[in-house]
Amino acid sequence: MNHLDPEELDVLSAFEQGKLTSVATKSELARFKAAARATAIKDKRVNIRLSSGDLSDLQVRALQEGVPYQTLIASIVHKYVTGRLAEKTETAAKPATGRSSKRLA
Contact at 8 Å (CB) between 87 and 103? Predict the structure, then answer.
């Protein structure tokens, strides 16, 4: 809780005091729950080969995010296929790894 700004602390306080109520309808809640269930279903296993450097970088990033690295990989793939992970070109700085200047954001 140490990382909350004053506005976030106000919202948390209001929530804990029961001052906040949901504005979602029952049909909206049902739709959101169905979407969450569908997103969480992992019914296929995939094996891929990665360079040891990429895997190490993923594991470090996962530790920073506080998630297992497999979950991070699945999240990246999901964001990519749903169009929420876009390629962006870096023009200001060269990549430190010597890799392509195009990055996924």
Answer: yes
CA angle (56 as vertex; 44, 102 as ends), nearest 5 = 85
Q: Which amino acid is at 89?
A: T
Phi, psi of 88 (to 5 degrees): -130, 145
Domain chopping of the chain, boundaries: 50-83
pLDDT tens figures, 85-96: 888 777 655 555
Q: How far apart are CA 19 and CA 73, in angstroms?
A: 38
Length of the chain: 105
User: Could you tell me if 102 and 88 are in contact, meaning their C-beta atoms sit under 8 angstroms apart?
Assistant: yes
pTM confidence score:
0.50
How far is the CA of 84 from the CAs of 29, 68, 81, 89, 105, in angstroms? 23, 21, 8, 16, 9
Measured CA to CA in angstroms, residue 91 lies from 58, 94, 98, 103, 104 at distances of 24, 8, 14, 11, 14
Please report which confidence band the pLDDT of residue 32 belongs to, taking 50, 70 and 90 as the band edges.
Answer: confident
